[in-house]
């Protein structure tokens, strides 16, 4: 790269030397900023990080050695190549300088040719550093950020939105039936699709947006200063463009669609990972609801704004009921560090087909089914691995205090048979279609009893079996089985 591609910060408390060095460097093509001491240099570095730092050793406030140490402790966007200017040329001084974080030395008085040669040598180091950084932070196939780098960017944007009270939204995208492309047309065709989708997302994004390949055929996009409704509009534009995209491959022109989940950071979202999890839950709802669509997380939790049906009698049935009033209790759990063979024994002994998985703190972290366990039968060694290696982590769950209408509206949209109910993150029960049908049945029974001349007995609550009316028996496992089938 040419000198004009490197930003340079020159630090010295001697104004005459600063002027001389700046003239040499600018004549060679380097963009140069100056600072009079180490503290001023630190302020300049944090506002606009340079590529090269040339600093005097002896300075007031913060000297050159201290400046080098502080720079190495900072979280900077890239590596800063540091050159110390000094009249101290002894072995002890050089060792001290290198240990403080300096990369090179220039002895005073400085020669113009030597200065430029040292920077030319340093540029080779910076180029290697940039190549390694690019490999570590970007996906080799699409050129998008990796998941790890995405979370680093999300962490910074999270703190920025908190400080400035700005909205922040996240979009998760999953390509529909992508495995079929790999299976039928081969991985080169699948790779071509992923590259085109990455380009489409970048073209559809602003410079401030962050786009990453989350894993496999999943992508994640961070939209700063964007509310959920606007993020959903962005996702809808991307969905339409994706569906219209014709992707040329060696075998045939491919078309692909995508499912999108959108979520906004709210006051009840505790951390950056929780925001991505909400978008992932909305994505799961989009996939269960038929794919090739955009689902907002708010649609899953705010039935007042996103009602599917206007029937007044639904309001009468549900009234003030919460999820805890309808759920069937869960009594069987597994820990994420349980071995796979332990789960298999539990399944064989109990006859169930899926079980919630708890973390070390007792909160819900996933769900494991017989199908998941079958994936571990390839070798005896896998049989001893922990459940965390095969469980499904994207489980739809609602808190006990959630209005039951919210759960009803959600189950009307998707093919899931039920959802897990939690209290402070810990699973306590399930609500499935049988639970809701039982509510409607018992509400109808109450109306019939109220209309009859004589009532011989009172009707039970929605979560109490009614032996007289004979509702369909329900086991907690039936709701979970529907989840594991996906």
Polypeptide structure, described:
With 486 residues, the chain is an alpha/beta fold. It has three domains: 3-137, 3-Layer(aba) Sandwich (Rossmann fold), CATH 3.40.50.2300; 147-301, Reverse transcriptase/Diguanylate cyclase domain (Alpha-Beta Plaits), CATH 3.30.70; 312-484, CBS-domain (Roll), CATH 3.10.580.10. 44% of the residues lie in helices and 18% in strands. The strands form five sheets. A five-stranded parallel beta sheet has the order 2-1-3-4-5, with helices on both faces. The protein has a five-stranded mixed beta sheet with strand order 7-8-6-11-12, with helices on both faces. A four-stranded mixed beta sheet has the order 13-19-18-17. The two termini are 51 Å apart.
Concise structural overview:
The chain has 486 residues and is an alpha/beta fold. Helix content is 44%, strand content 18%.
């Amino acid at each position: 790269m040419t000198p004009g591609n490197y930003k340079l910060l020159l630090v010295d408390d001697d104004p005459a030397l600063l002027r001389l060095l700046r003239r040499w460097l600018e004549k060679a093509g380097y963009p140069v900023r100056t600072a009079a001491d180490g503290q001023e240099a630190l302020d300049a570095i944090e506002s606009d990080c340079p590529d090269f730092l040339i600093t005097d050793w002896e300075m007031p406030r913060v000297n050159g050695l201290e400046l080098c140490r502080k720079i190495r402790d900072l979280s900077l966007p890239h590596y800063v190549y540091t050159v110390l200017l000094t009249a101290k040329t002894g072995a002890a001084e050089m060792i001290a300088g290198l240990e403080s974080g300096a990369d090179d030395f220039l002895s005073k008085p400085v020669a113009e040719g030597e200065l430029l040669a040292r920077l030319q040598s340093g540029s080779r180091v910076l180029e290697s550093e940039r190549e390694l950084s690019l490999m570590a932070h970007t996906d080799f196939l699409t050129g998008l950020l990796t998941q790890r780098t995405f979370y680093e960017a999300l962490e910074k944007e999270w703190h920025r939105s908190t400080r400035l009270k700005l909205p922040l939204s996240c979009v998760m995208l999953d390509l529909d039936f992508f495995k079929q492309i790999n299976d039928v047309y081969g991985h080169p065709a699948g790779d071509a699709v992923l590259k085109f989708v990455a380009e489409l997302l970048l073209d559809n994004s602003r410079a401030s947006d962050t786009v990453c390949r989350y894993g496999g055929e999943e992508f994640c996009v961070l939209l700063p200063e964007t509310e959920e409704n606007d993020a959903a509009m962005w996702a809808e534009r991307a969905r339409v463009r994706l569906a219209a995209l014709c992707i040329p491959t060696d075998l045939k022109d491919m078309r692909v669609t995508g499912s999108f989940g959108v979520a906004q950071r709210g006051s009840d979202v505790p951390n950056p990972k929780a925001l991505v999890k909400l978008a992932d839950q909305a994505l799961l709802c989009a996939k269960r609801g038929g794919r090739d669509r955009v689902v907002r997380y708010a649609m899953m939790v705010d039935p007042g704004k996103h009602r599917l049906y206007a029937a007044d009698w639904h309001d009468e049935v549900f009234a003030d009921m919460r999820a805890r009033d309808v759920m069937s209790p869960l009594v069987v759990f597994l820990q994420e560090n349980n071995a796979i063979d332990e789960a298999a024994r539990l399944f064989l002994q109990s006859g169930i087909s899926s079980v919630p998985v708890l973390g070390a703190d007792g909160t819900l972290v996933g769900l494991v089914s017989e199908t998941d366990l079958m994936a571990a039968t390839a070798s005896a060694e896998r049989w001893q691995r922990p459940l965390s290696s095969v469980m499904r982590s994207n489980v739809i769950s609602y808190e006990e205090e959630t209005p039951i209408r919210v759960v009803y509206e959600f189950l009307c949209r998707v093919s899931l048979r039920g959802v897990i109910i939690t209290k402070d993150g810990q699973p306590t029960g399930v609500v499935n279609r049988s639970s809701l049908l039982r509510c409607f049945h018992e509400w109808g029974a109450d109306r019939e009893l109220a209309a009859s001349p004589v009532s011989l007995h009172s009707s039970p609550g929605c979560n109490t079996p009614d032996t007289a009316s004979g509702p369909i028996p329900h086991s907690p496992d039936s709701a979970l089985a529907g989840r594991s089938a996906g």
